[in-house]
Structure formats: structure tokens, C-alpha cells
Amino acid sequence: MRDALSRLDGASRISGIDLARGLAVIGMLAAHLLMTADSFVWNDPSTWTAVVDGRSSIMFAVLAGASIGIVTGGREPLARPEMEIARIRLLIRGCILWVIGILLALTGVPVYVILPAYAILFIAVIGFVGLRARTVLMIAAAIALVMPFVQPLLDDLPLWRAPVGAEIETYIGWHYPFTLWLVFVLAGLGAARTGLARLRIQIRMLVLGAVVSMLGYLLALVRVPGSSYLDAVFTAVPHSGGIGEVIGSGGFAVAAIGACLLLCRLRAVRMLSLPVRAMGSMPLTAYIAQLIVWAVAAAVLLGDTADLNGFLALAPFWSMTVGILVGCTAWALLFGRGPVEWALAKLSGFVGSGPVRQ
Q1: What's the rounded Cα separation, in Å, for the pair 244 and 250?
Q2: Neighbours of 44 (CB within 10 A)
Q3: I want to staple 176 with a disulfide (CB 3.0 to 4.6 A). Which of 99, 117, 224, 235 is the partner?
Q4: Of 254, 206, 196, 241, whose CA–CA distance to 61 is shortest?
């Protein structure tokens, strides 16, 4: 247990990243298992559940980019031989994630499974891991400004209305379109290249992320009468791909991660947040566990895994959230790395002998 705890709380691990991932998992559970409000109003607590809609998954994407940045060298990209090994490992992980995602989609649980999209993003980011922070962040900024104007056109392609359109959407996770969501992964990769353990970087993430977020949500107020296309471009509606969401929710994710990194500088916060950090150290295990428990419970209790209203009527949020928190904490203390994360590392680790961190 001491060895497992030292791994979770050791100097080589960035506790704030685990905390941010754990909070993102809780946000994901809330988005899936609670009837959230349609829109967030800061002075109306009954609407605060809306904060998780769309933002949790975007935060996961930014954190995925940060983790990729860490395992490919941190502030300095790995040297060429090690980087080639890291790229192959990312490719293998992407392929495995895609298979897992399709299997989860086949359970019939009525959520948009994000893993097929993550798989494509893991593969797409391979071409960027050798770049330094400024270059990566400039590319991310360019995508954030350009793709919201292109995405509505892609979303309106006849392909999605074809007989196999729904299947293609599932296979590539188009609810989280890789054409646009690459910006979030690159933002996380760029942040990792700046040095996530440095105090000034953490403060910069919090401040700049908050400023960018407010700018994005202000852009979402733009309205052009009679133009449904421009309304789609400037919206901040969750999962819309509008520039308001991309910049607003993307900045929110960066600020939240910066806040978690700063808070985990305090020993008291690290101690109190241990269960959340334990869950954040194995987010893939937590994600899969949620959908498997959901599928089994819905099949047994309702006879239909696709019965969303029936399952939500069971009020599953607290029981599933506490159960996953307790399970992940116990596993982290007894065994260390999460079972799915361990298996992924083993399967991809057959390629070369380069370092694997975080």
C-alpha cells in the first residue's frame, strides 16, 4: 500500500493533473446521470448543474493532450529515437481505445461514447508531439479561430443522412468531431510543453484561461439576423462546435486545470483530495466502469439498456459516483495504476523501452 500511495503522491507525479481528471470524471458522471439545467446562470444555483454539459468532455480532451505532452518529454520533446517509440505507442493506444469505444457503444447505453473520437485524436496528435510549446499553441489558436466557421458545413454533409450515416458517426465519434476537437488536445500538449510543474505557468493558465473563456462567451452573444449559419458559428451551446464553445469552454478547461495545479501545491489539499485524485489517476477505468455498471443495471432492472428516462428515474448519480470513488481509491492504494491503464501500458509497452510517465 505504501508503494502504491507513493506512486500516487510521489514527486514524479503531477497531482494537479490527477485532481483535474478526477473532477472531470465527476462532471462526466453528472452530465450523464443528472437532469442538468439547459443553461448556466451564475446567480441561480438551480442552474449550476449546466456547468458540466460539454465542459467535462472538453476538459478531458485538454488533459489528454497534457498527458501526451508529459509522456513525450514534458517541456522538451523526446530525442528522435525515444520519440519514435512514443509515437508508435500512441498509435497502439489509439487503436485499442477505438476498439474499446465501439464495444461500449454496442452495449446500447444512451450516451455518446467519446472513446472512438479520442482514439482518432491520439493518432492525429502524433504529428505534433515533436513541436515546441509556442508552435503547438499557435496551431491550436489557428484551429480555434478557423474551424468553427468550417464545422457547420462538415456537420451538414449528405454523408450523415445516408443509410450508414449513424454508424459512421458512432465509429468516428462525430459527436466530438476530431476536426475541431484537435484544438483541445493541442492546447493541453502546448501547456505540457511550457512546463506544468512551474508556478508561473500554473498562474498563467488560471488567469489567461479565465480571460479567454470570458472572451469566448462574449463572442457567443453575437447575433446576425436571418443567418442560421453565423448563429451556428458563434454559439456557445454545449457540443455545438461554435466559436463561443471552443474558446469559452476551452479557456474554462485551461483555467480549471491551472487552478487544480495551484491547489495541489498545498499538502492539505492533496490529502483531502486523495479519493478524487485516485479516480483521476485511472480515468479510463472509471469511464468504462460507469458504462458497464449502467448497462448491467439497466438490463437487469429495466430490461433495456437504452431506457434513459427509466435509468435516470433510479437516481443513480450518487451511488455510482461514490462507488467509483471508493473503488478507484481502494485500487490505487492496494495496487497502484488502474487496471485498464495498466493493460494499455503493457500492450503498448511491447514497443521499445523508452520511458513512460504520468
Answers
A1: 9
A2: 11
A3: 117
A4: 254
pTM of the predicted protein model = 0.92
Backbone angles phi, psi at 142, to 5 degrees: -65, -45
DSSP string across 36-74:
--SS--TT-GGGGGGGGTTHHHHHHHHHHHHHHHHHTTT
Residues of the chain whose pLDDT is less than 70? 1-7, 10-12, 37-43, 45-46, 351-358
Cell numbers for 179, please give them. Answer: 476536426
Instruction: State the residue for C-alpha cell 469552454.
Output: 249
Three-state DSSP at 84 gives: helix
Q: What is the largest CA-CA distance in the chain?
A: 63
On the 0-12 / 13-18 / 19+ scale of CB atoms within 10 A, 155 is middle
**Cβ distance 100 to 292 under 8 Å?**
no
**Span 310-329, pLDDT tens digits:** 999 999 999 999 999 999 99
Measure the CA–CA gap between 250 and 241, rounded to whole angstroms.
11
- The one-letter amino acid code at 220 reads A
What's the residue count for the chain?
358
Grid coordinates of 275: 479519493
Place of cell 512546463: 195
